[in-house]
Specification:
This is DUF3293 domain-containing protein. InterPro entries: DUF3293. With about 170 residues, the protein is an alpha+beta fold. The chain has one domain. It contains four helices and nine strands; from the N terminus they run ββαββαβαββαββ. Strands 1-2-9-8-5-7-6-3-4 form a nine-stranded mixed beta sheet, with helices on both faces. The chain is globular and about 40 Å long. It starts with 8 loop residues before the first strand and ends with a strand.
């Protein structure tokens, strides 16, 4: 930024990847996440089941017309995609992950009734699939707090432009 004042959340371009500038949102501290982990988050497929007939797959940096249409239909301007599984990318037991997901659902339901089950998929198969939620209508500061509460490295944030952005929390 040109002036000395910083916004609470700034777009960043980690490493030499200037193209990341528009798709990564980071809190004001520098990330401690390794580049290969960030690359995995950027390449992941974020799937959600809205109804038995309607599912969607979100990709970081690519507009989701189906999500945009759905958000417009129910008059909501923001969405987030997050998990409680494997905090800090440390593999947890299935029982621990399920318990964390139950607590996450309870936490999200304090803010919205629009919560949809999903799964984050690594197309390269190097990272295990993780149960996740797409939650609509929760503001960014609240969802950052929730992501941090559940020990996550990152979350996905979508505003009214329907372009998923990666939010680095560590």
């Amino acid at each position: 930024m040109k002036n000395s004042q910083k916004n609470q959340y700034d777009f960043v371009s980690p490493s030499e990847h200037a193209a990341w500038h528009s798709i990564i949102l980071q809190t004001t501290h520098a990330t401690t996440l390794p580049e290969n982990m960030i690359q995995a988050y950027l390449a992941a497929q974020y799937q959600a089941q809205i109804t038995s007939d309607c599912s969607m797959t979100l990709h970081i940096g690519k507009v989701s017309k189906s999500l945009a249409t759905y958000m417009h239909t129910i008059n909501i301007r923001t969405a987030t995609y997050l998990t409680a599984c494997n905090p800090a990318s440390r593999i947890a037991t299935p029982a621990a992950n399920q318990s964390a997901m139950t607590r996450l659902h309870k936490q999200l339901s304090r803010y919205t009734k629009h919560i949809y089950a999903g799964e984050s998929i690594d197309p390269a198969g190097k990272w295990p699939a993780e149960a996740s939620f797409l939650a609509l209508g929760i503001d960014l500061p609240t969802i950052i707090t929730i992501g941090q509460l559940f020990g996550q490295n990152a979350i996905v944030w979508i505003n009214s432009d329907a372009i998923p952005k990666l939010v680095l929390l560590r």
